[in-house]
Input
Amino acid sequence: MKACILIIIIMIFMVQPLYAIKSASVHNEQVIVHYDESLHKVAEEILRIYPDVKQDIENTFQAEIDFRPTVKLIKNRAAFKGISGRDEIVAVAFSKRDLIVIDDSRMKTRPFSLEVTLKHELCHLFLHHYVGNKGLPKWLNEGTSQWVSDGIAEIMVGENRNLLKQAILSGRQIPINDLSDRFPEDERSLLLAYEESKSIVEYILKEHDISGILQILNNLKRGDNPDKAIFNALSVSVDELEKRWIDSLKKRITWLTYLGSYHYQIIFLFAALLLIYGYIRFLIKKWNYRDEEEDIEEEQS
Output
């Protein structure tokens, strides 16, 4: 019994340091940063870059960020996953709390950087404040935040690339209306949802410039539902917007352009096939040569 108690006490002391990570905070009049104690330099970097990130967003939307967000820096990836709920996510914004949580362990993983990630998540908070609880479509929220942060999302792409091209070529893209309230749960569909959101916003910008996005946001802000906000801003329905967006992609995406993105893989595959072909020919010649020798030996005997 005493031995069991001793083992339990030892386990408690061994496990406790894993969770008893000391935290600290720094702040100024614009932003508050909470961080795991070992990330003090990163927290100071947040204070340094925040004014420029804030100014960039204000200049883009011609509106002021009049709230002071809190940024939480997490050192441990497992601890961050417990907050975000997904291993692919590197940062998350909680709009109702003006809170940004960043997995610092991923900030040196290309293409992520502290500045780009902060800008992306701050844009989410800004859009929530700007539009309010007026039904901002998730695809518009995510697509706009990606555009503002130079096309970078908050999710690790991994090996799943060209999902949008595949979806367009096969006609299996996710309908815009299905991306209004939430994104899919499975990894492949989730990545596709991010790609689609970015692409749709880029199409709107190409056809209507930033004024198109701003007008949609202003219409939502004054109380229009998403369908009406988009129609009043772009003079097209959501269905027509989706059709035109897909048509524009089909003009650029063909099986040749899709395969072209895998040209290195194709070259290696072709080289491998040539090697296999050459080896097979060598074996055939070797067998033929052996048969000829056997025939000669039989004639001689």
